[in-house]
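Tutorial, part two.
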Amino acid sequence: MIINVRVIPRARQNKITLDENGRVRVHTVAVPADGQANDAVIKMLAEYYDIPKTSIKIVRGQNSRDKVIEF
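Running the prediction step on this input gives:
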């Protein structure tokens, strides 16, 4: 499965929501330095969808807020 994700780093709290277009928005308190926000996004999505972290991969957007995630 492939989904489009919008990441909001340095948020007040960790949460996952849907925007008006149905795109997943991941709010994380992690900073976007050294891949910390990407690691936090993978961890949060793994918990949200109840799948192992190793089965989640960022296909596109490593250095962007808009990412394409593959399960």
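Helices lie at 36-49. In part three we will examine how such features are distributed along the chain.
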